[in-house]
Amino acid sequence: MSVHGVPQRIPVATIGAVIRAGWRDFQGLMAVSMGFSASFVVTGLIMITVLVESGLAPMVTPLVGGFMIFGPVALAGFFALREARLAGRPVSLGVAYGAMRNAIRPVWVMGVFCVFIVLIWLTDAGTLYSFMVGDRHATWLSIIPTTSQLLRFHFGAAIMGGGLALIVYVVTVHAVPLLIRGQGTLVSAVSASVRAVGRSLAAHLLWAVVLAVTVMAGIFLLPALLIVLPVMAYASAHWTEAVFPSANPAP
User: Fold this and answer.
1) Which of 26, 72, 204, 205 has the fewest CB atoms lying closer than 10 Å?
2) CB under 8 A, 24+ apart: contacts of 59-62
């Protein structure tokens, strides 16, 4: 199935509407959504702990940014839970993990693309760290930039990572949801995503900021990620449905 029609222009007010819709989806799938999110919480806690214990606490923020870049690939599991509920089918963790495992090839291609960008981002951040910081910071408080040295490092890393994250966002914000639903080929889905961002630039840029702030806050306050991640994932589904009405699932 191809992507039909021209992307709809959407106002900034749509952001509030899709977050409310995502919250309603979460309420109907609370237990299984939090269970699926728990795997990301545990993985994040392990990776953050390893960095801190290795004396690389300031690198936690770039790591969190890397998770944000890779995040679109995790949508397959949440979307599968939502689709199963809408269709009246049983929902379970097996549905979510099965959707990720059996995702179509274009979705995995997008995943490889995201991983590649994450590796570039972490390599650049690591190089910047070696030049601007260098010494070990093995305390949890060192995650927070409290010195001018760490502030300069985080500022430089944010500029580099922000550019890469924007590229990933423009390419994946609608392409991944459309591909998960079988809406178009890899090329047509990416093209549709880029066109959609261009047609409603202000709304999409603000949506990107909302996603980044909420999910990054959830990662730093890991238990909150159990709620934030599924709510924003379901909201992302509604976001694409608002831009591409033809992609709406049957009620």
Assistant:
1) 205
2) 59/125, 59/126, 59/129, 60/143, 61/143, 61/145, 61/154, 61/157, 62/121, 62/122, 62/125, 62/126, 62/157, 62/161
Task: Give the tokens for residue 25.
Answer: 């989806």
Summarised one tens digit per residue, pLDDT across range 32-59 is 999 999 988 888 888 888 888 888 878 8
Angle at 11 between CA 9 and CA 16, to 5 degrees: 130
Distance (Å, whole) CA 219 – CA 38: 12
Q: Are 106 and 115 in contact (CB under 8 A)?
A: no
Give, rounded to a whole angstrom, the gap between the first and last alpha carbons of the chain: 19
Domain spans of the chain, in order of start: 14-247
Phi-psi region of 55 (alpha: psi -120 to 50; beta: other; left: phi over 0): left
Whole-angstrom Cα distance, residue 235 to residue 239?
6
**pLDDT tens digit string along 57-75?**
788 888 777 776 666 777 8
pTM over 0.90: no
